[in-house]
Every structure is written in C-alpha cells, then in structure tokens.
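User: Could you check the structure of this?
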Amino acid sequence: MVNTNKLKGKIVECGLNISELAELIGIDKATLYRKINANGQTITIKEADMISKELKLSKEEVNDIFFSQFVA
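Assistant: Sure, the predicted structure tokens are below.
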C-alpha cells in the first residue's frame, strides 16, 4: 500500500501539483488523481519509478512511500 500522504507531501515539497507530476511522467492527470485517491493501489512499479525520479526521492523515501507496509 502506498503512503499517499507522504507522496502528496513530497509533491508539494518539490513545488509541483498532481497535474504537473502527471504531465512529467506522461500519464493523464485524471488517471494519477484516481490512482492516488485509491490509496495508490493501482500505481505500477514503472509509474512509482518515474515518480521517484521526478521527485528525486532517496531509497529510504521510496521505501517509506511505496512500500509502507511491513512485510515479514
């Protein structure tokens, strides 16, 4: 499950909004809004990778945002 609150926070920290991020990663803004509002359940690995690169996330931030559930 994606930590959407942290993701939204990083988007704002980078001076972007969801529409701008969607354009940067090459998907429709409505699609990105829908994916984020569904708690990120439908964000693909490829999309997570593109988002990570655009937001210049560290490995720790990527793990905190996209892999927020502990898996044993």
